[in-house]
Amino acid sequence: MESGAALRILLPPILVAAACHAPPPPPQEPPEEIEVPLVPEPSPFDLPGQELRSWISSGHGHIREQAVELAWKAGPDGVATVADLLDDERPEVARAAERALWTLVHHAADPSSPRRRRETAAAIAAEIHRPRSLAAREKLLAALAVAGPGRSAVAEVAAWLDHPGLRPAALRALERMPQPEAGEALAAALARATAEGAAAETRLGLILALGGRQDAAGARELLAVAGDGSEPELARAARRALARSGAAEAAAAFLALASADSPSPAAALDSLRWAQAAAARGRERDARAVEEALLHHSAASVRAGAVAGLAERPGEEIPGLLVAALDDPDPAVRAAARSGLAARPGRLTDKALERAYRDGDDARRAEILRLRVERDGADRAAAADRIAAALASWGPIERLAALELAALRPAEPFVPLLERTRDRGTPEERAAAEKALLACAERRAGEDPQAARELYSSLAEQTEDPAVAAAARAGAFRAWLAAAVVSAAEDPTAAAAELDAIIRAEGVPAAVRRAAGARLAALGEDIGAYAREAGFLTHWWLGPVEARDVRPFLEHPFSIDGPDPLARPQGWRAIDVADLDGILDLRALCEPKEEAAVYLWTRFELPAGQPVLLQLGSDDGVVVWLDNELVHRNEVMRALTPDQDRVPLQLAAGPHSLLVKVTQGGGGWEFCLRLTDPAGRPLALAPAGS
Predict the structure, then answer these.
(1) Most CB within 10 Å of its CB: which of 318, 416, 457, 571?
(2) What's the whole-model pTM score?
């Protein structure tokens, strides 16, 4: 009581502040050494409901939050307080009241205090009967389903099934309540609704709630609805609910359904679901009977599900059933059978497989080959031996299976067999052998890049498939690069020559070319020389960066009159582009990196007057001034591609200056520019100057 008295002494100032209607001052971050004052913490059950109401109704968020945390200390007496505040017109108060209600519920559910739980549940039940909004009563009903113990809570919730507005909330609560009586209450309500001819919507809600419980409650009532063909929608819902339950009472019905001449795929899948649920409840025999009946269903998805289910059942006959499924015409069913057999190691499975391989046709032998390779797992040597033996087989189907497996598990011993198949096999076998050879070359590249390059090159020369040829040529370039990288450690000069050859090779993939350039740069070579050979300007002065909306797109702030082509302000810096294609990465050089514009300047000399083609790429927009005259503009949002803009010009001999403005929205920010003759041949230019 002493702590309660202290609380009442401290509370008036807090309540006065809470009652003030003037808006609080803008929130400020308090200094670290000053603590925000908190509501005094009362002792257990020494928090009167009126004080809890004042705290939750406070205009100060931190007081409301602490009231939510301390609400449980009001005990069952606090239920009426938070129930009233659930309908508060202030959303933040209503939300705090709902959180406080669940704080009360969770503390009441403590097994060490059964009396508190009973009293809290009784208080919640009483509040549901009082006049308040439907939304508040729904929240209270959900809380009662968690707080209420035993049959009494189930009865309280079930009583609201007849209330039109609260029926959905009562159904949800009974579906989630763990007490068996909740299922019994739903079953009784369904029986009553069926007998009274209640609306289909009412009965459907009861059926769905019973199905959501996934237990055997209401099996008899659900069977009656499922067997009534007058209302197909309700019958289907009842069948699905039974399927989720695995109820023993439904065993005969689902076996009859599965054994029918042609049950619909939906009905057959419900039978499979029931079998899975029944097996989980220990009725393996009933589950197996239904799954065996579905092995001959017309839908492959049903057959595959039946095979997968049987693979989990005990019994000496199961391996034989799974082996028989290897003959199914659908690959998904065969894959399910292989997975099931792979997961059942042992003498019975091995004997069934040996007998099937010996007596089976080529198709079955191919499936057993796939299965045995799967069972080899990480034992690559054993798998390679099986595949190599099958590659020499006389059976065409088994040989094709071996070729597919060789592509998935490439190994060096396969290469001679694959090359022989490529040269002598059927068109189908040759195509499969080429794919396997590609995989073998890829694996070889990690061990011997030069040997991989030779295999790729041979395949590219001999194949008639354009896609295989393209893949082989790309692989040969990658292997060539890998070989050059390996040699760099021993002979950097020779490696640099190889990398130069890769960069200059015709048809080299862009990714390989750029990777070769990066390796060459790492060896200390100037890769900007390749760009200059192609006519790119690689020496620039990088100027200021400004917000993109500082000035109009076609304007710049610089004076370009006088003997110096550009009177450069302080702060401009020289940039030499180190990129094969002369691309300048502005995002890496500039701040800010979004919604901005940057200026670049350079100059060059022509030995003679001539027509010139200015070719540039930009990400995003670009403006170009040549000798202080606007010659190109493109206000666009785009990614860079070299030479995406082409500008024909007639230039006199001598020095010329270029000022470029490149805008940026977001993402990448790049630029490149080169000068060629009208036919695209690079011009002979003097260096850009300092």
Answers:
(1) 318
(2) 0.59
